[in-house]
Design goal:
Distance between the termini of chain A: 69 Å
Low-confidence stretches of chain B: 94-120
Shape of chain A: elongated
Low-confidence stretches of chain A: 1-7
Mean pLDDT of chain A: 78
Radius of gyration of chain A: 36 Å
CATH superfamily of the largest domain in chain B: Winged helix-like DNA-binding domain superfamily/Winged helix DNA-binding domain
Number of strands of chain A: 0
CATH architecture of the largest domain in chain B: Orthogonal Bundle
Shape of chain B: globular
Strand content of chain B: under 5%
Oligomer: heterodimer
Order of helices and strands of chain A: HHHHHHHH
Structural class of chain A: mainly alpha
CATH class of the largest domain in chain B: Mainly Alpha
Helix content of chain A: 55-70%
Number of strands of chain B: 0
Number of helices of chain B: 11
Largest interface: A-B, 37 and 45 residues
Number of helices of chain A: 8
Number of domains of chain B: 2
């Protein structure tokens, strides 16, 4: 607990200011309580008058004015430009889904193929905690058989299709400009 | 007297090809945008150039404005990010209220004035100068709240903070402003209180 009277006094003053600012800004949850405090307590009344002066002074300030040519300069600049299409319009969700499907297919394909290579009946041998004898995996066979070749080919075709769509979109945008 | 055309109607006009309607939006918000830019960038020339850039950016991205917030809130968000990226690019030293050099300069400016000149300085000028001595964050919050017609929630959206944090920041900014006015413009403040 803070027993320093100076700290307590500062906290009291800070809390009073915060509550008075809320009241002045019309954001107070307890306007009638603050009104009563202002009416009955000289300290609150003095602080309220002080803050109201600051509030009115800040309200009375004028905005800075740019040069007279400002609007003209902006309009001359935008005369050479076009409004960009809305973000949602140029981000084609089909392409996003296509990319997601491509990677998902690759991951699932590799997982399926990896698990297909595991000899589940081999059991736990030589202290291998996973029960998989990695020395018995024939990596040469993994990357040579027809299944992998077909899988890779399908991925390459999908990749080329995506690249084609992307380049087509870019070309269309360029033509539009 | 003509009623002011709502911002959203002007935006629809611009989106339908009436680019001239954008001039009305620029006229409406140029002082607000320029004032906020000046809170970040000390040079008027740079602040004006950045402000023009903000309006050009807003025009280019107008199709992205969906009317979920006020146009001014959206525009001030662009203002804040553009000013910050300008400062990052230029690596300019941002004036802070804790910067002793700034205090020294401010004190010298006042010290160099005759008593008569100080007396002539209007209260509005005094407050404006005191605001300029605050940190860009503090002066921006004060400007948005008092001059930009933004609520605490809208300011929170613009500067990317929680509304409660903005409330505390606004309170502290006003306290610091009061301190600045008392410290640097005590003669004028004495007249006021």
């Amino acid at each position: 607990m803070d027993i320093n009277p100076l700290h307590n006094g500062m906290e009291h003053s800070d809390d009073m200011e915060l509550r008075l600012w809320e009241y002045i800004d019309g954001l107070s949850q307890e306007p009638s309580v603050i009104e009563r405090l202002i009416a009955e307590n000289a300290e609150w009344r003095a602080k309220y008058a002080e803050l109201m002066e600051v509030h009115q002074l800040v309200q009375s300030t004028a905005l800075e004015e740019p040069s007279l040519r400002f609007t003209k300069n902006v309009m001359e600049e935008i005369a050479r430009l076009q409004i960009a299409p809305a973000t949602k319009q140029y981000i084609n969700t089909k392409i996003i889904w296509g990319i997601a499907a491509f990677f998902l297919t690759v991951i699932v394909g590799f997982l399926v193929y990896g698990f297909a290579q595991v000899d589940w009946s081999a059991g736990n041998s030589n202290g291998n905690p996973m029960g998989v004898d990695f020395t018995s995996v024939d990596y040469g066979k993994m990357f040579n058989n027809t299944f992998v070749n077909l899988f890779m080919m399908a991925n390459v075709i999908l990749g080329l299709m995506l690249l084609d769509r992307f380049l087509n979109m870019k070309r269309k945008k360029m033509l539009e400009r | 007297m003509h009623a002011k055309t709502p911002d959203n109607e002007l935006i629809q006009d611009v989106l339908q090809g009436n680019t001239a309607a954008y001039a009305e939006l620029v006229e409406r918000y140029r002082s607000f945008v320029f004032t906020i830019a000046l809170r970040y960038i000390n040079s008027r020339e740079d602040a004006e150039e950045v402000s023009q850039d903000i309006f050009v950016k807003a025009f280019r991205s107008l199709a992205d404005f969906k009317g979920a917030s006020k146009f001014s809130t959206w525009l001030y968000t662009i203002t804040t990010t553009t000013c910050l990226s300008f400062l990052r690019k230029k690596k300019l030293a941002v004036q802070s209220l804790d910067n002793e050099h700034v205090f020294a300069v401010a004190e010298n400016v006042d010290g160099g004035m005759s008593a008569n000149q100080v007396e002539q300085k209007s209260r509005v000028q005094m407050v404006n100068e005191a605001i300029r001595m605050l940190s860009p964050e503090d002066s921006q919050v004060i400007t948005l709240f008092y001059k930009g017609e933004q609520t605490l929630e809208e300011i929170a959206q613009i500067i990317g903070k929680e509304p409660n944090a903005v409330k505390v920041q606004l309170h502290r900014a006003r306290t610091r402003l009061k301190e600045k006015m008392t410290k640097h413009f005590s003669a004028e403040v004495r007249d006021i209180y």
